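User: Predict the complex with guanosine-5'-monophosphate.
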Amino acid sequence: MQRLKEKIKKEGSVQGNNILKVDNFLNHQVDVSFLNEIGREFARRFQDAGISKILTIEASGIAVAAITAQYFKVPVVFAKKTESKNLDQNVYQSEVFSFTKDKTYQIMVSSKYLDKKERILIIDDFLANGRAALGLKEIVEQAGADLVGIGIVIEKGFQPGGKILREAGIRVESLAIIKTMSEGEIVFEE
Ligand code: 5GP
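Assistant: Here is the predicted structure with guanosine-5'-monophosphate placed in the model:
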């Protein structure tokens, strides 16, 4: 998605060797009209997939998932992060190691909001090592629902998440894939 690549180049900043900050439009301030374009692009790519629900993870996935959901006219469920395991039988849960926070946390979704008849699209802002996406995939599996695909705004192609997910047979659609990045230069895959 050309407009996204331009926006990342213009407004993004690289921190350390691996973190891209796009706080100006995605992760802190939210550019709603631009997110509408992102939502429309996900809708175009997954229009024939028969999606019944979008699943994401709090907090940064929620804005993009909610805007995307308007195009599909389906609800959004976001997995909640918790410190400890929930012993409640009525939740699906899994464990995620956070790349940006360098710690492991539990994620959970109430079983009320995911049904085995559901066709799920996972949406997230970034794909790095794939831990968040794999945790969400596990929750979809616990519900017995179908994972139709994963829509990512920015994939860091030099980290292994995309490869792991695609090799597992999952359809991953990333709107911008970064090949390499350093302070002052961000190079995208075609
Ligand atoms: P993964 O689980 O694939 O390793 O990392 C994806 C999650 O970590 C995303 O939900 C996102 O919130 C966060 N993340 C990973 N890399 C970056 C990054 O470079 N910039 C920002 N802003 N978030 C990231």
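The radius of gyration is 16 Å.
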